[in-house]
Structures are given as structure tokens and as C-alpha cells.
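Quick sanity check, Intermembrane transport protein PqiB:
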Amino acid sequence: MSDEPQVNAEVSAQKQLSAIWIIPILALAMGLWMLFQYVNSTGPKITLVLPTADGLEVGKTQIKALNVNVGVITDIKLSDDYRHIIATAQMVKDADRMLREDSLLWVVKPRIGKEGISGLDTLLSGAYIQLQPGQSKTFQDEFSVLDLPPIAPPDAKGLRLILTNKEAGKLSVGDPVMYEGFTVGRVESTQFDVESKKAQYQLFIFAPYDKLVNTRSFFWLNSGINLQLNAEGLEFSLGSIESLLKGGVTFGQLQEDDSGQQITQQMTEFLLFDDVKQIREGMYGDYIEFVMMFDESVRGLKPLAPVEYRGLRIGTVTKIPLKTESSNVYINIKRIPVLVRIELGRLYDNFGTTELPNLKKRVQDEFAKGLKASLKTGNLVTGALYIDTDYFPDEPADPLTQFDGYPVFPTKQGGFAEVQKQVTELLRKLNGLPMDDTLASLNSTLKTSEALLASAERILKKQETQNLPADIQASLKQLETTLGGFGPESTVYRELETTLRELNQVMAEFKPVLRTINEKPNALIFGESNTADPIPAKGKQE
């Protein structure tokens, strides 16, 4: 063992940081800085709901606002019910100012529509999502992506209207709204209301054209081509090329003096009519209803057929036939009731509804004077009928004055029934003719005619008759030769000319003699004397 004394080690805590920790600390600080920079440079994450993921790719599909990238799709997955797509997008810094509850997003891709071709730039770059910033103050991070771009932003200046129609499919999203041929708006959306069982079309009228809509405005379809065959004939109208290709809806006032109040209330409802004619037919709100009882076929008579008076339209057919509660009414009357309207707006410019009873009474008074209605053919091609009214004082009066609470308008047979009646009358007269005597006389006349023709044929076959043209030709040649002897170069013509000249000379010499005889008829007896008459001495002039 060693005799050296033991030395105990003295342990003390080191007060300085070891250099080995510098690298981890720097790495941690750098990571924190990078995390801060990442968080500070990125915006919020949003959730997008789409009907399909067609054209979308994770990490590639951009979100743009005014053609500037403001985000990118980071995740795409199916919803829990597998009915739609849920996509997650990472937005850039400060994008939260654009993400409001009224912001709109839609997919931009190549489209071919009525307005032409759009989105061709996405053929190379791929589809992207367009962001339209909202103006609301409420932030939102979940949106439903539209399949089509919006017609107008929520804060756009203009007027939104609702059009209703019984049938769906009249208009499509994006169809133009036109006024006097100018596009002033678009169709924003279409839907079918189950409760009202009507189609609803939402329109947006851009400012300042929204001032054109008032309480007297009407909306009708702008189909471009209108072809109708009815009792009034063939109606054909062709609109502009734009309306032919795009269709859409047109609005306006039917009368220039219509000064309705301007519509300022959003989502005001209007009726959508098929054409202008339908609007005009519905403008006659004041009318008198009558029932016309026809004892002939009404095939070809349709609702909305015209009722005319000597070519002037005065009303419209309403119901064919007029159905009643009694099941035996048609058997008892053996006639078909047709309900018609005599529309006062077609006859008077200003007519008060309080005068309707008086006018109805005046019309009924005309029945006693022979006013009746009859069916007439309006179109031979389609067989369409219309009702014509006129005075027939010789026709018997109709004993029926009321039918199911309606006054009865007297009728008479017309149209094909009248033709059949005339044909029947003609056949009756033909049956009353003495046909046997007439035929016997006709046979006798035919036999006489045959004998006369046979005699004429025998005369024509004779040789003398056949030589007659040659004899006539020879006589004409002889006459031509005779007349040729009196030509200007003939001797007879020269002698006749000399004789006429001498005769003129004799007449010139004979004129003084005639003048003398005219002045003194006794000159042929006493001769012409130039001696003056004697004058008596007493009366001799000084």
C-alpha cells in the first residue's frame, strides 16, 4: 500500500452554458421563427361544398379573385352521406377580409352556352375556383360552390323580380331579359314551387334599367318564332337573330299612355305570359256572359275562339261545352251549350262597371230584332270555327231564354249545317222536276242534232263544196288584176288626172259668173249693165 495521502475530488456546478447546446437552441429558434412566418403568411382554411370533384386536383386547383391566386385546394373527400364533395382550401394572408357570408364561389371551366364559349384559358391551366368577395361584416369559412357563375353580385345595383308560370322549363339560367330589343338583365335562377304548383323564375334587372319596370309592366316569352293556326288563319312572326338564338323574356307596356308607379320593392312578383296576344286577351276584365245553344256539331270550335259581329271581334269563347250539375240537361235540350264573353273593352274605350246591367239589358233587347249567332269556318286547313253574330229578322225566335243561370244568346244554323240545309233544299227541288219529260225532250233534241250534223257532213263531202275554195281564190286574183289597172302608172289613172285638172280650170272660170248671178239673178236675161239709175230732175242733187 502506498503511504501517499488520499486527495478527495471537489465537485462544483458549472455556471456557464456548454457550447454543445448552441446548435439545438439555434435549430429550435429557427423552427419557431419559420413556424411564426408560416402562420403569419398564411390565411384561414375554408371548407367548400361541391356537387362533384370534376376538374379539381389537390395542390393544383387554385382559388382566384380578379385573376389573382388567393388560395389552393389542399384536400378533397366525400361527405358522410356520399352525396357531395367536401374540399378544404388554404387561403393566403389577409384573405379573411374577402370571406364573408355573402361571398360567392363558382368553378370556372370551359363552357358552351347561349352567350358563346367561355373558360378557354382553363384548357391548359386546368379548372379553378373563382371567388367574388362579399360586403357583409360577418366572417364565414364554409361555402357552397356554385356550378355556374352568378348573374350579379348580391350588392349589385338593380332590381330582382320573380316571374310565375304554370309550366316549368320556360326559361333557363342566364337567359336575357330584354326591353325594346336591348338586353337589360338576366335570369338568375329557376325553381318549381310545390305548394303553389307554379314555376318561379328570378330575374335581375341591371341599373339604371330597373327604372323601366312599373306597375303597368308585362312580361312575356321572347321565343323568336311564333307560329299559330287558328280560326283567324295562319299567324307567323319572326324576331331578331339574338332572340331566335337566345330566347329569354321581354317586358314593356302595351299602351304608350300607361304611367304606372315605379317598382322599387325587391322580389316583386309578376305573371309570365306566353306571348303578347295572351296579355291582350286578358286585358278585357269587363264582360257580359251568355250561353249559346247550338244544335249542330261544334267540332273545330275551341276556347279563346273569337266572337265577331260583321267582322269586328266583340268577345271570346270561354267553355265548350258548359258543364252543369244536372246529368240529364244535354238529353233534355238536345243542344250543346257554349259559354261566351262579350268583352266591353273591345267596344268602348272607357266603360264603367256600374253600367254593365244596363248594357246587358240593351243587348237582350236586340234579340227581339233578330240578333243571332251562328258557327262559321275560320280556317279551311285546320277546320277551326268561330262565332259570328248578325241580324236575321226572318228567323224564328228562340224560346229558351235562360240556361243554368246564364242568359241565352239566340242562335241559328251556320257553317256546314247551313250548307247541308241548302244541299237538301236543292235535292228536294230536283226531285220535284219532271225528269222523264225533260229527258225525253233532251233525247229528241239530240236526235235532231245528229240528223243536222249528218246533213252538214254530206254537203261538205260534195265535189262542188270542196272546189269552192279554188273558185274563190281565182275570183280574188281576177279582182286584184282589175284593181291593178287603176294604179298611178296606168293610162286610166293619167287620163283621170288630166280630166280632173281641166274640170278644176273650168270651175275657176265659172266662179265670176256664179258671183254675178248671185248678185243679179236677171243678168242672164238683161245682161250686166254698169249704167247708173236715172234721177228725177226735181230731185236732182245740186
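Posting the structure with no commentary besides this: The two ends are 235 Å apart (CA to CA).
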